[in-house]
Amino acid sequence: MPKFKKRWLILILLALISAILLAITSTAISIYLYGKKINTNKAEAAIVLGAAVWGEEPSPVFRERINHAINLYKNQDVSKLIFTGGVGEINEPAEAIVGKRYVLARQVKSSDILIETKSRTTYQNLKNARQVAATHQLHKFLIVSDPLHMKRAVMMARNLGMDAYPSPTPTTRYSTFRSQIDFLIRETFFYFVYLVFKI
Fold this sequence. Notes:
This protein is of the alpha/beta class. It is 51% helix and 14% strand. The protein has six helices and seven strands. The protein has helices at 3-34, 60-74, 95-104, 122-135, 150-159, 177-197; strands at 45-48, 53-54, 57-58, 80-83, 113-115, 140-145, 163-168. Strands 5-4-1-6-7 form a five-stranded parallel beta sheet, with helices on both faces. A two-stranded antiparallel sheet has the order 2-3. The longest helix has 32 residues, at 3-34.
């Protein structure tokens, strides 16, 4: 192969790699900044995205989401809480059940708590929550999750036709630089997976 052709192929390859790296970097930055936005919207319900449970208790990540939802409820930013999430491990209660028990012990009315217990992914959380909400004539939502999870979750909700707005937890278990970087890398990957495959 002539030298000039090799040179052009190398330049094209470098340009392609640079474009991919730029797309990944800009997406990661947008995910990070999106989670920093302060939302002042009120809604009919907060949809609390599921996370792991430890036995009968919410994991630290899930607990932060639930506590934020309680604050939204007590501040009258929402009137209903929708908990999502099925069974992660055998012999453990569903995530939504654990969330419901936790808020009941903190003076949230039982009539203001809705649950779905079948979902295993963020997309399923939102799809099932939408069905629960529809049976109760709820149409406007705050999505509650960790800041770095917000951009993908809200995009999914809006693609499902939901009038949804971000409400990231003001505190998070992903507080160290290392844990945030790990979460951001994972979330950037899943963001691209959803853009391409819608899953």
